[in-house]
Amino acid sequence: MSIQTCLRCKGPCIHHHHEGVIIDRCSNCGGAWLDQGELESIIERRESVHSSSFVQETLKQGKAGLPDEALSDKLPCPKCSETMKVINYAYDSGVIINICPSHGVWLDSKELERIEAYRDHWKKEATKRRAEWLNLSNPGAPENATSGGLLDFFRSLF
Ligand SMILES: [Zn+2]
Ligand SMILES: [Zn+2]
Q1: Would you kindly state where each structural domain of the chain is located, as residue ranges?
Q2: CB distance 151 to 139 below 8 Å
Q3: Which residues pair with 24 in a beta bridge?
């Protein structure tokens, strides 16, 4: 279900294509309503590339917990009118979002992009670390030539 009015500024929300998902985005302030599951599909697809300065900016703002102003900043869900929960996305991204567990999430201007940048960074880090780990645990790597012992024993089995 789409929304017509921005939860923040009451500006008009228009359909906006983002990573193959149609979201409702306020043409005035850039806030966006995403139905349940839409944020996940956007994150899975995630084709937009963010500049490294934007990623750095996002990471700099990352910290755990909720600022005081976030706790008093409650929005009603546009579908059920229940007060949405305020959460720190991924616990420590520093991106504070409003969420109704049954209906969806409200993201203020740039929050969608910040979530993408955050996820992108950590995905790359994970890939990098995995490569480093594989390299370290590779018995054939020259710098580990002396690790021998048990690894040599296992290799001799094949
Ligand atoms: Zn707005
Ligand atoms: Zn709701």
Answers
A1: 13-124
A2: yes
A3: 15, 33
